[in-house]
C-alpha cells in the first residue's frame, strides 16, 4: 500500500509542479524545437526513473546494441501493464514518442506531457481518424523521431498470452521506410495488474531484438507482418521466462 501511495503522490505532484516546466518547454520550442525535445526527454526520463524506483522495480535491459543509432525506428512490443511506458521510455536512445489511445486526451497535464514527447493519439473506432494518425506517425519517423506502438491495441489481461498484432500498426514503418525493432516485455504486470490495486516489488525484463528491415524480408512474412513479429516476441518471451523466472 505504501508503494501505491508514494507513486500516486509523486505523479500528482509532478503534474502540478511541472506546469512551469511545460510553459518553459513551450517557449523553447518556438525558437529551438530540437532543444525542447531533448529537454522534454530528459525530464520525462527522470520522472519515469523515479516512478520505477518508488515502485521497487528491478529492471534487466537486454539488446540495446540492436537499436540502430543513426535513424528513427518503430519499436513494437507486447503490452501487459500500465508500467510498460514508464519502464521502456528511458531506454530509447533518441527522441521517441508512443502511439496511445485517444482516450488519454481526457487527462489534462498528462496529455500535455505526452504531446511534449511526440505521442500520437489513435482513434481505434474511426478508420478515417486512425489513418490520419498513421500518416502523422509516418511524418514523425521521416523527420527522425522514433515511435513505439503496442500492436495488440490494448493491454492484454492474461499473463503468458498474446493478443493478435494488428497489421495496420506496422504501416508507420512501411510508409516511413524505417526498421521495426521488436521489444519483449516480461513480468511487467507483476508490478500492479496482477494484484490490483497494490504496487509490489518485481523484476522486469525488457529485451530489444534485432531490427527488421522490411524491404529485406521474405514477401510472405511481410504480408503477415503482425503474425510474424508476434511470433518472434512470443518465442523470446518464453525463452526469457525460462531463464529468469524459474
Summary of the model, kept short:
The chain has 246 residues and is α/β, with parallel strands linked by helices.
Question: What is the fold's blueprint, element by element?
Answer:
Elements lengths: L1 H16 L1 H13 L1 H22 L2 E6 L11 E4 L5 H6 L7 E6 L8 H7 L3 E3 L4 H16 L3 E4 L21 H6 L3 E7 L15 E7 L10 H5 L1 H20 L2
Parallel strand pairs: 1-7, 2-5, 2-6, 3-4, 3-5
Antiparallel strand pairs: 6-7
Helix pairs in contact: 2-3
How would you sum up this structure, described in words?
It is a single chain. By secondary structure, this protein is an alpha/beta fold. Helices cover 45% and strands 15% of the residues. It is built from 9 helices and 7 strands, in the order αααββαβαβαβαββαα. It has helices spanning 2-17, 19-31, 33-54, 83-88, 110-116, 127-142, 171-176, 219-223, 225-244, and strands at residues 57-62, 74-77, 96-101, 120-122, 146-149, 180-186, 202-208. A 7-stranded mixed beta sheet has the order 1-7-6-2-5-3-4, sandwiched between helices. β3 (96-101), α5 and β4 form a beta-alpha-beta unit. It is globular and about 50 Å long. The two termini are 27 Å apart. The relative contact order is 0.17.
Amino acid at each position: 500500500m505504501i508503494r501505491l501511495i508514494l507513486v500516486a503522490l509523486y505523479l500528482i505532484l509532478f503534474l502540478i509542479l511541472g506546469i512551469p516546466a511545460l510553459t518553459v518547454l513551450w517557449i523553447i520550442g518556438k525558437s529551438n524545437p530540437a532543444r525542447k525535445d531533448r529537454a522534454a526527454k530528459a525530464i520525462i526520463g527522470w520522472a519515469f526513473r523515479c516512478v520505477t524506483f518508488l515502485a521497487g522495480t528491478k529492471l534487466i535491459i537486454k539488446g540495446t546494441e540492436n537499436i540502430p543509432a543513426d535513424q528513427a525506428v518503430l519499436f513494437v512490443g507486447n503490452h501487459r501493464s500500465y508500467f510498460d511506458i514508464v519502464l521502456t521510455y528511458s531506454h530509447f536512445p533518441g527522441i521517441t514518442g508512443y502511439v496511445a489511445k485517444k482516450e488519454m486526451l481526457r487527462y489534462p497535464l498528462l496529455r500535455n506531457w505526452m504531446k511534449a514527447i511526440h505521442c500520437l493519439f489513435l482513434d481505434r473506432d474511426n478508420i478515417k481518424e486512425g489513418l490520419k494518425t498513421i500518416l502523422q506517425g509516418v511524418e514523425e519517423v521521416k523527420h527522425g523521431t522514433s515511435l513505439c506502438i503496442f500492436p495488440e491495441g490494448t493491454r492484454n489481461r492474461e499473463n503468458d498470452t498474446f493478443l493478435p498484432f494488428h497489421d495496420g500498426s506496422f504501416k508507420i514503418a512501411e510508409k516511413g521506410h524505417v526498421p521495426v525493432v521488436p521489444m519483449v516485455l516480461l513480468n511487467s504486470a507483476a508490478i500492479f495488474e496482477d494484484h490490483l490495486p497494490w504496487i509490489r516489488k518485481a523484476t522486469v525484463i525488457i529485451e530489444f531484438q534485432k531490427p527488421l528491415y522490411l524491404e529485406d524480408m521474405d514477401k510472405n512474412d511481410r504480408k503477415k507482418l503482425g503474425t510474424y513479429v508476434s511470433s518472434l516476441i512470443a518465442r523470446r518471451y518464453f525463452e526469457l521466462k525460462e531463464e529468469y523466472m524459474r
